Amino acid sequence: MDSLDTPAPPSVKFLAEDDAASRRGSIPTIRHLLDEDHEGRSLSGSVRSRSGSVRSRTNSVLTRIPTRPELKTLTRVVKRPAVDIEFTDLTYTVNTATGRKHIIKGINGFFKSGEITCIMGPSGAGKSSLMNILVGYVSQGVGGSIYTNGAERQLALFNKLSAYIMQEDLLQSHLTVYESLLVAAHLKLGNELNQDEKRAAVEEIMTTLNLKFCQNTRVERLSGGQKKRLAVALELVNNPPIIFLDEPTTGLDIVTTNQVISLLKFLARQGRTIVCTLHQPSSTIFHMLDHVYLLAKGFCIYQGTSHKLVPFLAKVGLVCKPTYNPADYVPFEIKILRREYFNRWYSLKSYYTALSLAVAPLIIVFTIMFASLTYACSDQPLSLSRFLWFNINSIIVALVSEAIGFCIGSVFNAANGTVVTPAVIAPMLALAVYGMGFGTAVEPYMLLLMNISFMRHSLIAFSLTLWGNARAHFICPSSVVYCTHQDPRLLLKDLGMSNMSHMQEVYFMIGYFVLFKVLGFILLKYRMTKSKNSVYNGGALAYVKRLIKKS
């Protein structure tokens, strides 16, 4: 869709032609949208003047940047149909402290298969929001319609046909390039291809993306450009017809950037729909783009080919000088699980089950080592049953603690988690030791609260294991006239545990383990499926943060 040769979409026509309404203040003009960013600085003033000689020498160098030989079409991967994306009257609002904020304001667009489309705009223009909406990462607060190949988008099917490559290269650092691709092939293709066909597809992808020479190199040793190509290769395993990329050239030098954009253009020419955001592309890179979608303050002010952007801006009074980079007229501004889950490598249930089973043996082994040393160093009786139950109690407590930690980690990041965890554990610890020495003289309501703490049940289980089951009297030193708790039964009575059942406490701890494991999965699913601006981040937690700042 070209803004000069074909009728502009409503969002462009709305801004470019209704000057009378703009003068009344009801509609912003393109100049108004581009003249100021959110910090009040003049964007046109931020453009640095360059001498013509320096620009000409730079362009001559850029045009001589070597590119790879002509690449071949992928033939070993699963065939997918081409998909065009269209959206009409798209809006997006979020809740803030001062009310509802409109991020996207009734825009229209058409992203065609076989082309590489770049979403550009000033800081706060809505680029990331638009990308997240199209990907399906954001659903709440979104209005308007999104179509694929002329039919209304079915998000579940769309997610299977698309891939989202995030700005940060979230890769398994200890695997080699070949191992990473083979694992991705097994996870993403399932039974679509047999073992030999999967290996052939991996070999073809490595050859096409120029990764063959480093196939036995660990990912952590790859360069920035190699990691970016590997991130693209991992998603090409199941050959998605739509690929979204967030800042694919960030941190790359000009040569590597040119190679990455050339690769994306090559993939687009095979019938894929490539949509990306770029941070101040050079003039050479800018003119490599097939389609530019320009945003400013939530409005679409241009969509069309890159080489006609300058004439379009000149028509509205923004003249780009010959020595300027056209992209300089528009200054620009969570991880492995999120990427792989969102790109449908596996289900969240499979990931959670695999993670739990992988961590459990380590927890059990290290807990047994610690508990055995503790049992021996504390001079406990040489009783096999007591020793085994001491280890079993320790293992259950460790598993419950890990489950609680996972619940907290599913909701908070590392920085906030270090604050929240003590706040959660401290009350449990206080309830665990409350009433020690009072015997059974504990208030009924406190007994109810004490049962909430899994540490209370674990403490009772440990106490009954060590001092129950008819344990012999403790040795009273001859220098002491009278030992008040020489009889273990008297000690348990003073602790209020004489009439309690060890197995009952074990069942309580197992119940807590199951509860926190289920809760952990629910919280993880909530975090993976809810948008960044939903109640999860923009609602309840944001409200708590505001209260903390005000106090």
What overall geometry do the principal axes of the alpha carbons give?
elongated
Give me the CATH superfamily of the domain at 85-168 and 242-342.
Answer: P-loop containing nucleotide triphosphate hydrolases
Number of DSSP-assigned strands = 10
Biggest beta sheet summary: 6 strands, mixed
Uncertain spans: 1-31, 36-69, 329-334, 531-540
Number of helices: 22
Task: Provide the β-strand percentage band.
Answer: 5-15%
Spatial ordering of strands, largest sheet:
6-7-8-3-9-10
Under CATH at level 1, the class of the domain at 85-168 and 242-342 stands as Alpha Beta
Rg for CA atoms? 31 Å
Mean pLDDT across every amino acid position: 74
The CATH architecture of the domain at 85-168 and 242-342 would be 3-Layer(aba) Sandwich
CATH topology value of the domain at 85-168 and 242-342:
Rossmann fold
Secondary-structure-based class equals alpha/beta
Helix content: 40-55%
- Kindly report how far apart the N and C termini lie: 53 Å
Q: Can you tell me about this structure?
A:
There is one protein chain. It is elongated and about 105 Å long. 50% of the residues lie in helices and 12% in strands. The protein is built from 22 helices and ten strands. Mean pLDDT is 74; it is low at 1-31, 36-69, 329-334 and 531-540. Strands 6-7-8-3-9-10 form a six-stranded mixed sheet, sandwiched between helices. The longest helix is centred in the middle third of the chain and has 30 residues, at 348-377. Helix 8 packs across helix 9 (195-208), helix 10 runs parallel beside helix 11 (254-269) and helix 19 runs antiparallel to helix 21 (502-529). Among the domains are: 85-168 and 242-342, Rossmann fold; 348-532, no CATH class. It is an alpha/beta fold and 551 residues long. A hairpin with a 2-residue loop joins strand 1 and strand 2. It starts with 9 loop residues before the first helix and ends with a helix. Residues 42-60 have a biased composition (Low complexity).
